[in-house]
Amino acid sequence: SISINEKVGMLCTNGIWSVLPRQYLQNTLPIADVLKKIEHPKEKISIDIFKNFVLEEAQLYKIIASLVALMVIYSVEHWVLKKEFTIASLTQYKIIDDYALPKTSMQLEGLKKDLLAEEKMQTLLRQEIKHLLSLPLMEGERWVEFTVKKNTIALSIVLKDPKRAEELKKVIAQKNQITSIKVVDTTMHVEVKL
Fold first, then answer.
1. C or N: which end of the chain has fewer Cβ atoms within 10 Å?
2. If you average pLDDT over residues 132-150, what whole number do you get?
């Protein structure tokens, strides 16, 4: 049996080595003495990886210089990208703080989705209003009311002749869905769905 240290030793039984607490082992030899008694073989194995590798010194210097240049370029590029990333991150955090935006990316994506939907709705509303305000009014005809509600636009126009209501109705119906239309005296009241 061999003692590895004060607490642990090794025991060989039938060619199998076991590590045991030293208190269970008797007549142990220190591992240093055992290692000194081992005879090393005289045979050597030579590993000639570069035996057929012939490279002139100038070529070797060129390769080393190229590798050093690539390492320098990579290091500089890495440093520049890291600096730009830091600046972009700081700018992002500053914008989030300045505009009191949510901190997480999920909340920011939700806010972005809501704002894009609102933008789409506002663009549609502007197109509807532009179309309605460009109605071909004759001289003496005028707008009396133009009200934008959540899902509808209500408008009233004083007409020269009540028969013109049918002509204006066709123009409005080209791009808008009319929910109600009535003519009282010379005033046409129209409600359009958004």
1. C
2. 87
